[in-house]
Design goal:
By secondary structure, the chain is α+β, with helices and mostly antiparallel strands. Helix content is about 20%, strand content about 20%. The strands form 2 sheets. Strands 1, 3, 4, 5, 7, 8 and 9 form a 7-stranded mixed β-sheet that branches. A two-stranded antiparallel ribbon has the order 2-6.
Length: about 240
């Protein structure tokens, strides 16, 4: 049977799709991570779109050209976090904030942490370039995992090295940084697996969300001595 394509209906659906893109931009800006860009402003069909932010028409099975409705067997959701703020009130001294470090693999806007943990960096942009230009040798890695339902894990913090331990003390590479983040998230998962968490859709541990289901999008310099990642869960 030959399917019939209705141009008028498609034009209506295309308008709805573009409206959904604008709604998603608003959704990102109003999220708990709104003070920084969580994903690329370019809507990457494979990596940067959060499917649940779109209306039902986007997830329908209508006949359509892939230009506007690419098939997407899996979708990603940005993990909400509360941006880290130092608990001790410090004098108002501005610090030079390092630009966000982005992790793109083969033009996609993130790297899988399971692969990074195993040292698989094929296609990672700037793989062997220095990740930082800061003079610091160590920083605190912070993760404040929050579910849309309001359930949250206790804040996680652990010190990481951002320069090599050799005499030259060169900054670590982007690849090395990706693996370091993967190790920290793995440590977070193992530490909080026994922790009671009321939202099974965002719980970490065996049978729930594991390292292979998490992608690293960016790493932000959130305070003078702290870094915080932007992560996505791949469903």
């Amino acid at each position: 049977m030959t399917s019939h394509f209705d141009k008028g209906n498609y034009a209506t659906e295309k308008v709805a799709y573009n409206a959904a893109l604008r709604e998603y931009d608003r959704y990102r800006q109003e999220s708990l991570w709104s003070s920084s860009s969580t994903v690329s402003s370019t809507h990457d069909a494979e990596s940067d779109i959060q499917t649940n932010a779109y209306p039902a028409i986007y997830r329908s099975s209508i006949s359509r050209p892939p230009r506007y409705y690419p098939e997407r067997p899996r979708h990603s959701e940005v993990i909400l976090q509360q941006r880290y703020v130092p608990s001790v009130a410090l004098p108002r001294v501005t610090f030079k904030r390092h630009p966000p470090i982005r992790f793109r693999v083969n033009d996609r806007g993130s790297i899988n942490l399971g692969k990074a943990f195993r040292g698989e960096f094929e296609g990672l942009e700037r793989c062997q370039e220095a990740a930082f230009s800061m003079a610091s040798t160590k920083m605190s890695f912070r993760l404040e995992w929050l579910a849309p339902s309001g359930a949250r894990y206790p804040p996680y913090s652990h010190q990481i090295a951002i320069r090599e331990s050799s005499k030259r003390r060169e900054p670590i590479t982007v690849a090395r940084l990706a693996r370091t983040v993967a190790k920290e998230v793995d440590r977070f998962i193992k530490h909080y697996t026994p922790y009671p968490f009321s939202d099974d859709g965002w719980k970490v541990g065996p049978g729930f969300i594991g390292l292979d289901q998490i992608n690293l999008v960016e790493l932000h310099h959130v305070s003078e001595g702290s870094l915080q990642p932007v992560l996505k869960v791949i469903r």
